[in-house]
Amino acid sequence: MSVVRGYLVPHRPQPLLAPHLNPGYTDLRRAMEQVAAEIAALDVDLLLLYSTRWVSILGHQVQADPNPVWTHVDEEFHELGTIPYSFRMDPEFAEAYAQAARARGLHCRTVATHGFPIDTGTIMALSLLNPGNRLPASVVSCNMYADRAETLVLGKAAGDALKATGKRAVAVSITALSNRMFTEIIDPAQDRISSAKDDEWNRKLLEFLGEGRLEDVSQLARSFTSQANADSKCKAIWWLASLMGQHNRYEGEVLSYQPLYGTGAAVVRLVPSLKAAKDQEFDEDDTEFFHGDRGVLQSATPSAGAYASAPAEAAPVTPVAPVASRSPVAPVTPVAPAAPAAAPPASSVKVNTAQAPKPVGAYPHARREGEWLFLSGVGPRQPGTDAIPGGPVWDADGKPLPYDVEAQTRAVIKNVQVILEASGATLKDIVDCQVYLIDMRRDFPTFNKVYAELLGPSGATRTTVEVRALPTPIAVELKVVARLKA
Amino acid sequence: MSNQPGEIVAGVLAPHPPHLIYAENPPQNEPRSEGGWEELRWGYERLRERLDKLDYDVILVHTPHWKTVVGTHLLGLPHFASKSVDPIFPNLFRYTYDLQVDVPLSEAIAAEGEREGLVMKMMRNPNFRVDYGTITACHLVNPRWDKPIVVLSSNRAYFYYSNEVGDATMLALGRATARAIAQSGKRALLVATNSLSHRHFTVEPDPPEDMSHEHIYNMNQHLWDMRMLKLMREGKTRQLVAELPDFNEHAVSECSDGSLTWLLGALDLPSYPARVHAYGTVIGTGNAIVEWPHAEANAKAAKRADAEVAP
Q1: Which residue of A has its CA nearest to B282?
Q2: Radius of gyration of chain A (CA)
Q3: Which residues of B touch A182 (CB under 8 A)?
Q4: Which of A43, A70, A101, B92 has an alpha carbon within 20 to 30 A of B204's alpha carbon?
Q5: Per-domain residue ranges for chain A?
Q6: CATH fold of the domain at A305-483
Q7: Nearest CA in chain A to B210
Q8: How confident is the model at residue A396 (pLDDT cuts 50, 70, 90)?
Q9: Contacts (Cβ under 8 Å, ≥6 apart) of A283
Q10: Interface of A with B (CB under 8 A)
Q11: CATH superfamily of A3-272
Q12: What are the extents of the domains in chain B?
């Protein structure tokens, strides 16, 4: 396990600068110092932080200055004093994190600028949780426009980076719970949660977290946001859940819960466990790759010079939305299913369809080159839900699961059919098929039977190979070449 | 300074995209560029030519990038110097500043604000880093940095309560500001440093000054921006304030940080036409440089009144 445990900590500076002003601030300080002692006893390489106080607009940013040094003053609570800091960051991991995020479709870059304004939340967390800079740290920003999908992918990219670098980390989400501050100057000794409703919601979330039900809290985020003015839509919870694992198998403990100028502030520990306090059916979608608002720099017309690809002159073909900011593609037309084409076009066109599962990388479902149609690798995932008919082949921790290869094969071929039809072709137009199985001995006979039933009539040539793994937990993938009829 | 009552000589809407300073390559800013966003930069040139002809003592800035929940804060020490780094665009803006603050006027505004029932707070920590919105706007309006400034934070009332509450709060702050200026005997330039529509692109071209990518985020934002500019040019600021809640909501406007409403409140919701020096987009947001020639308009109005009573 790359993330050995996770913590939630607050971000307002009272526990660091003025714990004496309120017993609650003192208690938060005590809990954060307890966390520091726990982390010091762990065999880990990295502190990995997400702070809701570091707001970004251009995708996400990862701090990569190896030694940021500055003297910080909080913009709201400047009267509490000054925080000089000198932190130890891990620039190599920051680069790995940014790369992993980009590989999942996110816009992400590192920052390593002297004087970059590190946020109060990060400063407080690193000051109290990592005294003496015992561990190197890595901090990622909170994009102001990001919603659940983008934040989940950001968390998964952190996991990718940990795997790529072989590092073990403690994950820290820096966030308030309810985030309704008092708007007048208060006596800190009289601090309290600003409303009973916020307090009730905070306690409900903390009850779940105390039971280790991290994914339950992640699923509740939208309700919590609307009911209790959650800090940044609960993105810090989404990030932590997607990084640690979207399930409830944790040992949880609430180390402190106190008001911080009316907001809910908590210190929570989550340790991965084999046993779930409660298994639930989760309603919110999961996502592996970000397909969001990243094409906005592209021209809206196909005649915009170097950034336009060939116009999609055939009605059934919908140009794919650009994935990377500088990819040479053009119109940002919503992807939609389409009817078969009457005749093949002469030019090169990318094809995407909402009726097939989203690609897991920066590629279209298919690419048409004249009369030839090349499909990207197609698996059995279901469009919209990413559910895998016949079940996934392993769980979130890589533990093998039983699965039904027949159901998966039928789903694969159905997805191939959908993409072909969106491109103006049919299963009968396939001329060559490459097949990837993860367990040839177990799955080939069943696969072969279904293939003969559904694709045998095409008469396509075929090559079948065994591979160690596929990008998602599936057992079979097809790579197809078809020829469009004149 | 005379014993005459103080006066607002002009109010300006002066947006603060760091891109405009990046494009200009001033010595205070570390990154270098090949230009870009010329329409807005030329608009600032026109504004500066106008302001150079005015006689004023102090610049008051209401900035969206010093965000405070507990009331409105004002810089409360006479001198600040440091480096400002934009947390969103650190690749564009790393600016070394050295500025003077008119503390007595700041304190007077705080006192008047409290009389309006507002929560006011002076910022007296010498290590405080002045926000990049203020630095950018001050440079664009007065690159010589030869006037003291007053800086007011952006209270979050719009986000904690509603657009309507936010506007009411900012109008009250504007009234308090105007009274404090009048009592000070100083001639003041007011700077509201916010964009109009404010939905950004979330990707950046390489290089950032590649203008082939620059355009408004969507047509809705453009139409709303033009609507607001039309009202400004026609002197219909009461109507504008009435429509601001819808504008904030529909066009993700940065007016929800309160700067423009504060300015219009201080100018007592002017009915004379504003002068639009430029409109342009920066990474998808709509930005206008607009001047309310307050002293000039008041002088004209006084002249007309004199003419009417003359025999």
Answers
A1: A297
A2: 25
A3: 69-70
A4: A70
A5: 3-272, 305-483
A6: 60s Ribosomal Protein L30; Chain: A; (3.30.1330)
A7: A297
A8: confident
A9: A219
A10: 54-59, 71-73, 75-76, 78-79, 81-82, 107, 111, 113-117, 119, 143, 145, 180-185, 261, 293-294, 296-297, 304-305, 307, 325-326
A11: LigB-like (3.40.830.10)
A12: 7-309
Neighbours of A469 (CB within 10 A): 12
CB contact under 8 A, A116 and B90: yes
pLDDT tens for B137-169 read: 999 999 999 999 999 999 998 888 899 999 999
Contact by Cβ (8 Å): A181, A7: no
pLDDT digits 0-9 by tens, A69-103 = 999 999 999 999 999 999 999 999 999 999 999 99
Q: What is the ipTM of this complex?
A: 0.94
Instruction: Give the DSSP H or E segment for B73.
Output: strand B72-75
Q: Which of residues 15-54 of B touch A (CB under 8 A)?
A: none
The shares of helix, strand and coil residues in chain B, as percent rounded to the nearest 5, are: 40, 25, 35
* Other beta carbons less than 10 A from residue B4's beta carbon: 10
The string of DSSP letters for A399-453 reads -B----HHHHHHHHHHHHHHHHHHTT--GGGEEEEEEEES-HHHHHHHHHHHHHH
- A59 → chain B, closest CA residue: B202
Give the 3-state secondary structure of A436-447. Answer: EECCHHHHHHHH
Distance linking the first and last C-alpha atoms of chain A = 54
Element of type H or E holding A461: strand A461-466
CATH architecture classification, B7-309:
3-Layer(aba) Sandwich (3.40)
Contact yes or no for A221/A234 (Cβ under 8 A) = yes
Q: How far apart are CA B283 and CA B202, in angstroms?
A: 8
A275 contact partners, CB below 8 Å, separation of at least 6:
A249
